[in-house]
Design goal:
The structure is a single chain. This protein is of the alpha/beta class. It has a domain at about 5-90 and about 170-255: Rossmann fold, CATH 3.40.50.300. It has helices at about 45-55, 80-85, 100-115, 120-135, 155-165, 185-200, 240-245, 250-255; strands at about 5-15, 25-30, 35-40, 60-70, 70, 85-90, 95-100, 145, 170-175, 205-210, 220-225, 230-235. It has a six-stranded mixed β-sheet with strand order 6-9-10-3-11-12, with helices on both faces. Strands 2-1-4-5 form a four-stranded antiparallel β-sheet. The longest helix has 17 residues, at about 185-200.
């Protein structure tokens, strides 16, 4: 049996200074080496969950717990969560003009090593990045570009996958990585996720999405459906097929009847 990597129990959370919770008693477990897809309609709380896991200061946890490798994730600051092995790919990656991807990645890499009293020299870093780019079939010229500056939607998401490859997190939370991508860009990003998951048998992935189409290219071990801030249904890949055919109404109606 794979070990639990992320355990969320009875989680309630809201936007800071708001009165009502967005997450309302959410329970979720993601195991090592597995890809879990989280689906749900707009406003169900999917992106809120991603931000809470990452430690976004604009959100407040009112009750419940998040355990990462058995430790209390809520006790850690956002940078500490990242250094501990949690990675968040943003729905809308920020542009950072003037900062090259190479410099950005090296700074992020050394920030992770710093608390262990280590540092990666420029030659070791270059070898690592070239190895990962070869794995993802990316052009090395990508490294000289400024972070997301003038990038297409697909390039921004591919850059996030490169960051994930270089940093080698234990848990990757991908917040609507497929958002706004055409079919070619979607296949490129999906191939990157599949490649990294195959290269690291302990990598856990929480893939947040509205649509089944990304699951045509990424094999999910489990599919969860979020309705009104909690998990309404969990199952195998066939659950995504049912959602594609029937939408979310059957789950909303079932929840209302309970």
């Amino acid at each position: 049996m794979p070990e639990a990597l992320l355990e969320i129990r009875g989680l309630h959370a809201r936007v800071e200074d708001e009165d009502a919770d967005i997450l309302r008693g959410l329970d979720l477990v993601v195991e090592e080496g597995q890809v879990h897809a989280l689906m749900g309609p707009n406003g169900s709380g999917k992106s809120t969950l991603a931000k809470v896991i990452a430690g976004h200061p604009g959100y407040t946890v009112t009750s419940g717990e998040i355990l990462f490798r058995g430790a209390d994730l809520l006790e850690l600051e956002p940078d500490e969560r990242s250094r501990s092995g949690v990675f968040l790919a943003f729905q809308y990656p920020a542009e950072i003009p003037g900062v090259s991807i190479a410099n950005f990645l090296r700074t992020a890499m050394n920030a992770r090593l710093e608390e262990r009293g280590e540092e990666m020299d420029v030659f070791a870093f270059q070898a690592r990045v070239i190895e990962k780019m070869a794995l993802l079939k990316m052009d090395e010229g990508f490294l000289t570009r400024y972070v997301n500056d003038g990038f297409s939607g697909g390039e921004k998401k591919r850059n996030e996958i490169l960051q994930m490859a270089v940093l080698e997190p234990a848990l990757a939370v991908l917040d609507e990585t497929d958002s706004g991508l055409d079919i070619d860009a979607l296949k490129i990003v999906a191939n990157g996720v599949n490649t990294l998951a195959a290269a690291d048998e302990k990598l856990g992935v929480l893939l947040i999405t509205h649509y089944k189409r990304v699951l045509n290219y990424i094999d999910a071990d489990r599919v969860h459906v979020m309705i009104e801030g909690r998990i309404a249904e969990s199952g195998g890949p066939e659950l995504a097929d049912r959602l594609e055919a029937e939408g979310y109404d059957w789950l909303s109606e079932a929840g209302a009847a309970v």
